[in-house]
Write a structure and sequence with these properties.
This protein is of the alpha+beta class. It has 2 domains: about 190 residues, Penicillin-binding protein 2a (Domain 2) (Alpha-Beta Complex); about 450 residues, 3-Layer(aba) Sandwich (Beta-lactamase), CATH 3.40.710.10. It has 23 helices and 27 strands. Strands 2, 3, 4, 5, 10, 20 and 21 form a 7-stranded mixed sheet that branches. A 5-stranded antiparallel sheet has the order 12-11-25-24-23, sandwiched between helices. The protein has a 3-stranded antiparallel sheet with strand order 1-8-9. The termini are far apart.
Length: about 750
């Protein structure tokens, strides 16, 4: 019996020794791994140290976007529920959270019980520094009070198990100012729209990490890899000029108003954007709030898709993403291109009788009744005469005209450093029929964007240098040192200095000369040049208009260019078609910008550069250009003709039953009034103008529309237009290619 017992004991002892040996080997070979597992169970795993997103400042150093440090409230339930002989933490800590933050006591107790084995619970996010400071001061004061009390009266109570974790919140100090230029950052590190999206990789940094582990002595160790913060963008935007533009757009919208009002201010000598504003703004600190454009009932009735589309429209940057028929600002480019090609030399004269018959169309001038009468080229620009422009392109020919459309950048992206830029829609020489050539000459039947027109016009008045428009001036590191300087990028030369000088003088006469259509754009004390625009929108039968003014100062040494576009003023029919609306806004904006930029008044009006042209009386010819009306269209008008139409602004009167221009647009243009009209009482439902849709300008998920261009899409592939497939002449709509 004893022998059996001894064997049993021996076997048990051997088994215990074997088990001990196995455990020893496990600890020896895998002890570190098991320690890490234990650490993980205790929630001492690594945590992220967030980077600080780079700031955005204007050209003067004014902060437009900053990342503000905030704090996440972290609870340690295991510590808070711990009870030992010396201290008790639960009641005091819960009481402190309720007292400082107003949290629900029962909710806190339920969470502690649920997470009782955890050391890390995020209870609240993005608390301001004041909340953190208030709690920490409260904690210190109450713990001092508890220490002074006897144990029986609460001396064992302590506040513990609460701490704060750093985080950053994006803040835009000026709310909606320059919202379409800035865009907004999202919590996941992406961004939507503006430079926030375009330069996201520059503004973003790299997160750091804090690693927790047990050392060889099973003591908790931590290693910290610091975060690398993002870089700062210094914009070309001037916040003060941006505010000026915003003020006068708001003033216009509070009065007559329009579906969209937009302004670009540019340095014509560098293509730096000084301001870019539209009437469809949103609060960058609350970018999903639609209450500015919809009622609570309308918002509540929206499904997910409808709400996303509403956000998309609100965030869309009209200045770069929407294209439209530009109207008469094109006339200055038409004249310049013809002069460069040698089709005209600026001394020609033509007679306007109010209409030209081209193809199967009677295409009217703005002076549709009696016409302007005899005009020089300069007077043709001053009076915004369509007939003069049509006569010019008859001499120039479609090949050369189409070539200069591309040279001026139409039909192609400008390359501006903002997402969602559209290309516009233009004809190519091979598919441009006579009526399209004629109407393109004065800015109808092709589409461009505001930024395209501003960039082209800048080259026209600065001596012929086409620069790439841009909104970022420099990239800086955390210490303010320059990492990269964005110098002006010369893309190409468009016109000669002599042509540029001719245009500057003609546009000065348009504002200040007798009979010019832009007198409302004048700025007291300054020499200003510019061109009015009144474009008839699709569908022509609706008689809706887009009015504009693009101008510069000083007229003979341009330092600043301002482009104002008003899409569909809130008036009936032809009452919309007054260029004065845009000219007056231009005058107010320029009147404040010039003194701010230290551009001094000119005093007495400067003498025009071409005194011989300026000395010619309005409507009287010097006998230059005697060729009869024919292939080139140049005329020897009857000098005795009187009673020609005269206007002090550009105003289109479409008549009762007939339309000015063909309905035809280049293939791919969106002309559906349900998509391009005003959907919601002044809020732009779609493009807000006849034209191709642009890129996204940033979607809600921070992704960019890959095309970044007009929504011609499948229509373009088939060569079919959104406009009528047949014009009044029975000619088919030409297949259109993008401009080079």
């Amino acid at each position: 019996m004893r022998e059996k017992l001894a064997v049993t004991v021996l076997v048990i002892m051997l088994a215990l020794f074997a088990l001990a040996w196995v455990l020893y080997q496990l600890v020896k070979d895998k002890g570190e791994a098991y320690n890490q597992i234990v650490l993980g169970h205790q929630n001492y795993e690594s945590r992220t140290i967030p980077f600080k997103r780079g700031s955005i400042v204007d050209r003067n150093g004014t902060y437009l976007a900053v990342s503000e440090k905030v704090y996440n409230l972290i609870l340690d339930p295991k510590v808070m529920l711990e009870k030992d002989e010396q201290y008790e933490y639960t009641e005091a800590t819960v009481e402190a959270l309720v007292e400082c933050f107003g949290y629900d006591r029962q909710e806190l107790m339920a969470l502690l019980e649920e997470k009782k084995d955890s050391h890390y619970v995020i209870y609240a996010r993005q608390l301001p520094a004041e909340d953190k400071e208030r709690f920490e001061n409260y904690q210190q004061e109450r713990n001092n009070e508890y220490r002074a009390l006897p144990a029986a009266e609460g001396g064992r109570r302590r506040i513990a198990g609460v701490w704060f974790e750093d985080e950053y919140r994006r803040v835009y100090p000026y709310n909606e100012l320059a919202c379409h230029v800035l865009g907004f950052a999202l919590k996941d590190g992406t961004a939507s729209g503006g430079v926030e999206q375009y330069y996201n990789s520059v503004l973003s940094g790299v997160n750091g990490r804090e690693y927790g582990y047990l050392n060889d002595d099973s003591n908790l160790e931590r290693t910290v890899k610091s975060a690398r913060n993002g870089q700062t963008l210094e914009l070309t935007i001037d916040a003060n000029i941006q505010k000026i533009c915003q003020k006068y757009i708001d003033e216009w919208q509070a009065g007559i108003g329009s579906n969209v009002a937009a302004v670009i201010v540019m340095d014509p000598n560098t293509a730096e954007i000084l301001a870019m504003d539209t009437s469809t703004r949103y609060d960058l600190n609350d970018p999903y709030n639609l209450e500015k454009y919809y009622t609570e009932t309308e918002i509540a009735a929206m499904d997910e898709q409808t709400r996303a589309e509403a956000w998309y429209r609100m965030w869309r940057n009209f200045c770069i993403s929407d294209s439209y028929e530009p109207g008469s600002p094109q006339k200055a480019l038409t004249v310049a291109g013809a002069m460069e090609e040698g089709a005209i030399d600026g001394t020609e004269s033509y007679k306007c009788e109010g209409v030209l018959h081209i193809g199967d169309w009677d295409i009217h001038c703005v002076a549709r009744i009696a016409g302007h009468g005899p005009l020089t080229i300069t007077q043709g620009l001053m009076k915004s005469c369509n007939v003069v422009m049509m006569r010019i392109v008859q001499r120039e020919g479609r090949d050369k005209f189409a070539g200069f459309q591309s040279i001026f950048g139409f039909g192609a992206k400008t390359g501006i450093d903002l997402p969602g830029e559209a290309e516009g829609l233009i004809y190519q020489a091979e598919n441009m029929d006579p009526s399209s050539l004629a109407t393109n000459a004065f800015g109808q039947n092709f589409n461009c964007t505001m930024i395209q027109m501003a960039a082209a016009f800048s080259s026209l008045i600065n001596g012929g240098s086409y620069y790439e428009p841009h909104v970022v001036k420099r990239i800086l590191d955390e210490q303010g040192a320059v990492v990269q300087k964005k110098d002006p990028q010369l893309v190409r030369e468009t016109v000669s200095e002599s042509t540029s000088a001719f245009i500057r003088n003609a546009l000065y006469q348009t504002v200040s000369g007798e009979g010019g259509t832009a007198g409302a754009a004048a700025v007291e004390g300054y020499e200003v040049g510019g061109k009015t625009g009144t474009a008839e929108k699709h569908p022509r039968s609706e008689k809706n208009y887009l009015v504009s003014f693009i101008g510069f100062a000083p007229a003979y040494d341009p330092q600043v260019l301002v482009y104002v576009v008003l899409d569909t003023p809130h008036l009936e029919g032809k009452e919309q078609a007054h260029s004065t609306f845009a000219s007056e806004i231009f005058s107010k904006i320029m009147g404040e910008i010039l003194p701010y930029l230290n551009v001094f008044p000119s005093g007495d009006a400067a003498q025009p550069e071409d005194e011989e042209l300026a000395a010619q009386e309005e409507g009287i010819l010097s006998g230059i250009g005697q060729e009869e009306d024919g292939e080139n269209g140049e005329e020897n008008p009857d000098e005795t003709e009187e009673n020609w139409d005269s206007y002090d602004e550009e105003f289109l009167d479409p008549g009762e039953d007939e339309y000015y221009y063909p309905e035809r647009l280049p293939a791919g243009a969106d002309t559906d009034p349900e998509r391009i009209g005003d959907g919601f009482g002044g809020f732009p439902f779609g493009t807000g103008a006849s034209g191709a849709r642009g890129g996204s300008g940033g979607l809600a998920d921070g992704t960019e529309d890959e095309s970044g261009e007009s929504g011609a899409g499948t229509e373009e592939e088939s060569g079919e237009s959104g406009a009528e497939t047949e014009s009044g002449s029975g000619e088919s709509v030409p297949e259109t290619q993008r401009g080079a």
